[in-house]
Amino acid sequence: MDTKNKILTFLFCLLLVAGLYFYFGFYNRTYVDIDTVATEIKMSSGELTSKYILNEESANSIYRGKVIEIEGIVKEISFLNNRNTVLLHGDDKYSSVICDMQPDQIEEVKKLIPGQKIQIKGICKGFLKDAILLNCMLINTQINE
Question: By the 8 A CB rule, do 127 and 60 touch?
Answer without folding.
Answer: yes
